[in-house]
């Protein structure tokens, strides 16, 4: 680096070097401080040492840094001195500084901060006289020694019990003095603390606390650079994908004090409501306090606006009289300061065109702005703020669409826990947030009992080791589902998401004992009937009943959704198995069904008996007899789907799962089955044994079933075509697509297509009437992707089954991956769970290749995806770029997919 490079940038009223566009060089905080100065907002002057210097620190160490920036820092400190009219190191009216980190991306609380820098035994006396407040001066001094001793000199606890060695000293003094609070300590006590702190540092570190302000400053700057590489910062970067190479900037700024008496104070404000998004300036402040007092929460903060204060009083049940005398708003208490603050917040929001979160300090009747940044907000607030800013002409449609995180829409679609109640709730376990929402209910361990309990009017949480399709009905009536095993695409997770039902899967610490009907976790045992609550958005399991509140879909949400349609290219369909699911999907804006898993209908009511009869049959005749019983039921299901989706495509997949999923595996239920079917228990057991496979996911399933038992395909096709004709007769616009699962060879597809077409023709001949329909295939085995050109010549559409494609391409099972994936993710073996977000560099290539080959073989072939990835925003971006026609996801993810598809189109500039 040449010594001509600028490394230090000042900001203040008379000169500012940086601006908001320089985040990479100055960090978010530094860039925004500079921008505020440019806007004429009053900010304590300061300097920012660039992120590039952090790289020099990491690569060459502190001597190199000192050499590089010493002259610039000295010059910049002189600038601060001039702005403040005080001298750094002066003993009569010292300029005190703060030293803070500030990287490109916000890393809250991860790095170190030092306040009140510049104090020593002489300066403290000067400060006391100047501030006319001796106690304040000594309190500032002891706080400085405490922070500096910890952060710069590295005085850390020697044991777990010690926690903070300085706090131990304070506690000892308080005990000696018989006082409880820090604020009860007198000036003399604080003086004693300063001596004790210095003694502690000397004893533990073997060095004196530095009295030279310049030595203090250099020590602090280096410590902040050093903190870029502390453990918590590294972990945070890993979790949030922040590159190590970015480095942090260091901000050195003149100190202002909010604890200089009753005309001083400090606070935090938001330009809009971060919870609801309401366009209402709001926030809190404390009189005679500094920032850490607000964070500590030991005093009740007051509201900034009168309106906010009145609303708060109502909630806190404080009378108007009490409010006015004890908790007046800033608007009432300091009208002039309030007016300045309002002016600054309006200026900042109009400038940044986004909701701002600002920090300020009032020092003896003068307002200083300390920070501004884009405010964190709930999903509901995101939507409302984006749409209101659009209406207010602050942002355009494209920007409004970009302002909402698609996944955050989850919060608007499911019931949520009352945030106040969550704070008090006891978390007992943690699992994968498989399906969002809030659920509270009594524990049951068996699906049939869940149904029974619900029939009696109870709310239940179905707790299982894992779930299987047999549990479907129990799952559908439960308010929530908790499983000890399984990942994000485990049965429980997929089904729960489809139902929009709260589910936590893979809560590994939970031990389920079906015999004892207990669940134990962390040394505690919960029995059937005990209450628990699940937060499906975070994966937290709570003890007892945590109150919930219904989600509200606001008008802004609908308007945002309409806007997505204007910009997205991808079509959005839903994976729906029943007319009810289809209805929900359509109200959320699905334009068709991309996957109906027909087997889910096989568990309803009496059907399972007919399915089992088919499975037990020794020959084709027996199977056909059983299938004939299923036919009218399936036809009825399809009629319902076609009716709900009139005018839109409905893709129906032929039977896919291995048959063993339809028979009971425990003796009690086998006995019931034997009784119901009037066959000996031994026969049932033998058949269940026959069906056993070592790896059923790679066994007798998918089109392999239809090829070995074509009569199944025949029955299902007949049900589909008859339903289509029946609905057409009723004026429904039917667009049926029949889909063959798990194809790996062209012959497999052709064999199934032949059965389908022959059966359809037979129905047409019987009815004397025809209807258009398509026959296509899933691309879900790697081989199918490899030979997609040959398959494309035969199949009229492809739907990528990325769940199976992922498990087969990766070589690990959807059901067993939960054993190692969490630690794999932690160790960075994969960036994201490949079942949740498509592995673009690997599995994604198979999709890309199949798209190219499919289109080459059949231009205009319809291409979609129906694996769980169809509802994942990052994957949707990939599918957009890959050129798919649509994605299909569970009904409750349709709005998320619509928004993600619009953002993908905006990102791609199309
Ligand atoms: C898939 O494999 O991606 C798919 C949609 O089918 P299923 O999840 O039913 O195997
Ligand atoms: Mg599949």
From TrEMBL:
It catalyses: pyruvate + phosphate + ATP = phosphoenolpyruvate + AMP + diphosphate + H(+). Residues 459-539 form the PEP-utilising enzyme mobile domain. GO terms for molecular function: ATP binding; kinase activity; metal ion binding; pyruvate, phosphate dikinase activity. Keywords: ATP-binding, Kinase, Magnesium, Metal-binding, Nucleotide-binding, Pyruvate, Transferase. Substrate binds at residues 597, 653, 780, 801-804. It is an enzyme of class 2 (transferase). Mg(2+) binds at residues 780, 804. Its cofactor is Mg(2+). InterPro entries: ATP_grasp_subdomain_1, PEP-util_enz_mobile_dom, PEP_util_AS, PEP_util_C, PEP_util_CS, Phosphohistidine_dom_sf, PPDK_AMP/ATP-bd, Pyruvate_phosphate_dikinase. The active site is at 491 (tele-phosphohistidine intermediate), 866 (proton donor). Its EC number is 2.7.9.1. Residues 24-392 form the Pyruvate phosphate dikinase AMP/ATP-binding domain. Residues 555-904 form the PEP-utilising enzyme C-terminal domain. Belongs to the PEP-utilizing enzyme family. Catalyzes the reversible phosphorylation of pyruvate and phosphate. This is Pyruvate, phosphate dikinase. It comes from Accumulibacter regalis.
């Amino acid at each position: 680096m040449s010594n001509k490079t600028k490394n230090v940038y000042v900001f203040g009223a008379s000169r500012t070097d940086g601006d908001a566009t320089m985040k990479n060089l100055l960090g978010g905080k530094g860039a925004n401080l500079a921008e505020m100065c440019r806007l004429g907002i009053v900010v304590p002057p300061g300097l920012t040492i660039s992120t590039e210097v952090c790289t020099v620190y990491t690569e060459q160490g502190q001597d190199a840094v000192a050499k590089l920036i010493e002259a610039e820092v000295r010059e910049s400190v002189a600038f601060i001195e001039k702005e403040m009219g005080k001298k750094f190191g002066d003993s009569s009216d010292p300029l005190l500084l703060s030293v803070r980190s500030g990287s490109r991306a916000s890393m809250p609380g991860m790095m170190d901060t030092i306040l009140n820098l510049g104090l020593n035994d002489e300066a403290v006396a000067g400060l006391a006289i100047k501030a006319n407040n001796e106690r304040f001066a000594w309190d500032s001094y002891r706080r400085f020694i405490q922070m500096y001793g910890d952060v710069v000199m590295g005085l850390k606890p020697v044991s777990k019990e010690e926690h903070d060695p300085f706090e131990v000293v304070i506690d000892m003094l308080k005990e000696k003095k018989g006082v409880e609070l820090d604020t009860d300590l007198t000036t003399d006590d604080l003086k004693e603390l300063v001596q004790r702190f210095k003694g502690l540092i000397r004893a533990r570190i073997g060095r004196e606390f530095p009295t030279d302000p310049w030595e203090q400053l250099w020590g602090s700057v280096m410590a902040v650079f050093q903190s870029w590489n502390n453990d918590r910062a590294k972990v945070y970067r890993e979790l949030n994908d922040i590159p190590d190479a970015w480095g942090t900037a260091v901000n050195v700024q003149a100190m202002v004090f909010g604890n200089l008496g009753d005309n001083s104070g400090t606070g935090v404000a938001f330009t809009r409501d971060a919870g609801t998004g309401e366009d209402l300036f709001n926030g809190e402040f404390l009189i005679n306090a500094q920032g850490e007092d607000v964070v500590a929460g030991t005093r009740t903060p007051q509201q900034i606006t009168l309106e906010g204060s009145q609303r708060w009083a109502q909630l806190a049940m404080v009378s108007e009289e009490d409010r006015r005398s004890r908790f007046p708003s800033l608007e009432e208490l300091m009208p002039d300061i309030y007016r300045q603050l309002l002016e600054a917040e309006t200026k900042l929001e109009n400038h940044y065109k986004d909701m701002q979160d600002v920090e300020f300090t009032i020092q003896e009747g003068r307002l200083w702005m300390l920070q501004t940044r884009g405010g964190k907000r709930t999903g509901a607030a995101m939507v409302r703020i984006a749409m209101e800013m659009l209406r207010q002409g602050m942002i355009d449609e494209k920007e409004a669409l970009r302002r909402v995180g698609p996944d955050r829409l989850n919060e608007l679609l499911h019931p949520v826990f009352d945030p106040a109640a969550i704070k008090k709730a006891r978390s007992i376990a943690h699992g994968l947030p498989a399906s969002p929402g809030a659920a509270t209910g009594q524990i049951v361990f068996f699906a049939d009992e869940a149904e029974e309990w619900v029939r009696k009017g109870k709310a239940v949480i179905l707790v299982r080791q894992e779930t299987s399709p047999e549990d479907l009905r129990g799952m559908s009536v439960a308010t929530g589902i908790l499983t000890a095993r399984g990942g994000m695409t485990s049965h429980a997770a997929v089904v729960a998401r489809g139902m929009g039902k709260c589910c936590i899967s893979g809560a590994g610490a939970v031990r389920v004992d079906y015999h004892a009907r207990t669940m134990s976790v962390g040394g505690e045992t919960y029995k059937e009937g005990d209450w628990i609550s699940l937060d499906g958005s975070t994966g937290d399991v709570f003890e007892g009943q945590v109150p919930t509140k219904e989600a509200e879909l606001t008008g802004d949400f609908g308007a945002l959704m309409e806007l997505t349609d204007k910009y997205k290219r991808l079509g959005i369909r839903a994976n729906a198995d029943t007319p009810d699911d289809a209805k929900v999907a359509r109200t959320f804006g699905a334009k068709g069904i991309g996957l109906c898993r027909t087997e889910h209908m096989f568990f309803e009511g009496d059907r399972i008996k007919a399915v089992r009869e088919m499975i037990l049959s020794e020959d084709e005749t027996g199977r056909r007899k059983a299938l004939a019983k299923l036919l009218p039921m399936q036809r009825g299901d399809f009629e319902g789907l076609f009716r709900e989706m009139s005018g839109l495509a409905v893709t129906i997949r032929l039977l896919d799962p291995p048959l063993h999923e339809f028979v009971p595996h425990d003796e009690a239920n086998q006995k019931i089955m034997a009784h119901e079917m009037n066959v000996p228990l031994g026969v049932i057991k033998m058949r269940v044994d026959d069906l056993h496979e070592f790896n059923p996911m790679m066994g007798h399933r998918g089109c392999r079933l239809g090829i070995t038992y074509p009569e199944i395909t025949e029955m299902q096709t007949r049900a589909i075509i008859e339903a289509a004709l029946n609905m057409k007769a009723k004026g429904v616009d039917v667009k049926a697509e029949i889909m063959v699962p798990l194809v790996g060879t062209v012959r497999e597809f052709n064999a199934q297509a032949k059965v389908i077409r022959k059966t359809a023709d037979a129905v047409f001949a019987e009815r004397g009437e025809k209807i258009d329909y398509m026959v296509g295939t899933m691309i879900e085995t790697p081989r199918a992707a490899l030979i997609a050109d040959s398959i494309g010549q035969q199949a009229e559409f492809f739907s990528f089954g990325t769940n199976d494609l992922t498990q087969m391409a990766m070589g690990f099972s959807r059901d067993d991956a939960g054993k190692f994936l969490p630690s794999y993710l932690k160790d960075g073996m994969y960036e994201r769970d490949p079942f949740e977000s498509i592995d673009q560099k690997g599995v994604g290539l198979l999709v890309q290749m199949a798209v190219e080959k499919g289109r080459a073989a059949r231009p205009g072939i319809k291409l979609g995806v129906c694996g769980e990835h169809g509802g994942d925003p990052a994957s949707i971006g990939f599918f957009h770029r890959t050129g798919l026609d649509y994605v299909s996801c569970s009904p409750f993810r349709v709005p998320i997919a619509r928004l993600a598809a619009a953002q993908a189109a905006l990102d791609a500039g199309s």
